[in-house]
Amino acid sequence: MADKQISLPAKLINGGIAGLIGVTCVFPIDLAKTRLQNQQNGSRLYTSMSDCLIKTIRSEGYFGMYRGAAVNLTLVTPEKAIKLAANDFFRHHFSKDGKITLFKEMLAGCGAGTCQVIVTTPMEMLKIQLQDFYLIVFFSVTNPKLAAGTVETKSPTAMQITRQLLREKGIAGLYKGLGATLLRDVPFSIIYFPLFANLNNFGKRGAEGPAPFYVSFISGCVAGSTAAVAVNPVDVIKTRLQSLTRGNTEDTYAGVTDCIRKIMRNEGPSAFLKGAYCRALVIAPLFGIAQVVYFLGVGEFILSFLPKKDK
Predict the structure, then answer these.
(1) How far apart are CA 289 and CA 84, in angstroms?
(2) Phi, psi dihedral angles at 96 (to 5 degrees)
(3) Could you give the maximum distance between any two Cα atoms of the chain, in Å?
(4) pTM, 2 dp
(5) How far is 298 from 259, CA to CA, in rounded Å?
(6) What Cα–Cα distance (Å) separates residue 302 from each residue in 84, 229, 292?
(7) For 191-218, how does the pLDDT look when each residue is reduced to its tens digit (9 = 90+)?
(8) DSSP 307
(9) What is the DSSP string of 66-134?
(10) Which of 47-56, 78-87, 140-149, 263-272 is the least confident region?
(11) Could you count the other beta carbons within 10 Å of the beta carbon of residue 266?
């Protein structure tokens, strides 16, 4: 019996479109998550996600909520394309007669997360810098003594940050926080993809039929929020490591271990859950929307118009 083949180009197109639509819907919450996670004791500007969004609109306008969105859209397109397509690719090769064990589902998720991190870490780094810049500017206005000497008056662009990192630290500068990113995204994928697949299977119409779109959406939301909260401590570490500019009262970190030690000593274990609520609110609808769009088969539809090679 011939195995059903998957079209990797079509899966990549589906994943890219899914990411673009999903991130456009949830980006303001992602910005609030990043700014909440970057706050340390003694320099708290925001008390909650809603407080962060309200202050952002007041100080930067509506489009301030989309600070760094261009970089994030550029990030999420390959991220979702690689992650979703790679998971399908690995699942296809690990399955036998259409069946796959839980261990191999987790292994496929591990492979998908690893492939995605290698490609997207530099863009994740740039996104955090752009989101964090206006937090520092606004903080300097409200706390001039604590933030003295730490703020540039001109907003940097993604290209300027890239050139600065390459000039000062080389390629390694763009991969700052790679270890923490791997520790976050690989476990996330190991949790998310098997959980989503099994939840989605409950709503399938028959053995081979697809699940209704609302089942895929709910499954993506549940699996995404569960995985997001589970790996949030590592997300806090990654965000701290990738933030370049800090106030005089804020800690700097030499690496993952140093970051964990200083957070535990100065802020306590609860600091590792900073932004967990926001992260769950970002990831749940993002993956719910992305999975629905991914299963629409836009990539297959587009490629169907291309001339087929004669065998």
Answers:
(1) 13
(2) -130, 120
(3) 73
(4) 0.73
(5) 43
(6) 18, 36, 17
(7) 999 999 999 998 887 666 788 889 999 9
(8) P
(9) GTTHHHHHHHHHHHHHHHHHHHHHHHHHH-BTTB--HHHHHHHHHHHHHHHHHHHHHHHHHHHHHHHHH
(10) 140-149
(11) 13
Decide: helix, strand or coil at residue 297.
coil
Q: Number of helices (H) and strands (E), helices first, in the chain?
A: 12, 0
| CA dist., res. 150 & res. 49, Å (int) | 25
Q: Hey, how many other C-beta atoms are within 10 angstroms of the C-beta on 184?
A: 24
Looking up tokens 């309200």, which residue turns up?
54
Higher-pLDDT residue of 140 and 287 is 287
Distances (CA, A) of 106 to 83, 91, 188, 224: 13, 9, 10, 15
Examine the pLDDT at 151 and tell me if it is beyond 50.
no
Neighbours of 26 (CB within 10 A): 19
pLDDT of residue 90: 94
Beta-carbon count within 10 A of 187 CB:
18
Of the candidates 193, 182, 200, 17, the one whose C-alpha atom is nearest the C-alpha of residue 90 is: 193
3-state secondary structure of 287: helix
Distance in angstroms (rounded) separating the CA atoms of residues 31 and 47: 14
- Please give the share of the chain, as a percent, with pLDDT higher than 70: 81
Q: Rounded to whole angstroms, how far apart are CA atoms 102 and 51? A: 41
**DSSP code string of 165-217:** HHHHHTHHHHTTTHHHHHHHHHHHHHHHHHHHHHHHHTT-STTTSPPPHHHHH
- Sequence length of the chain is 311
Question: Which tokens go with 294?
Answer: 């991914």
Q: How far apart are CA 248 and CA 75, in angstroms?
A: 31
Going by C-alpha positions, the residue among 156, 230, 222 that lies closest to residue 186 is 230
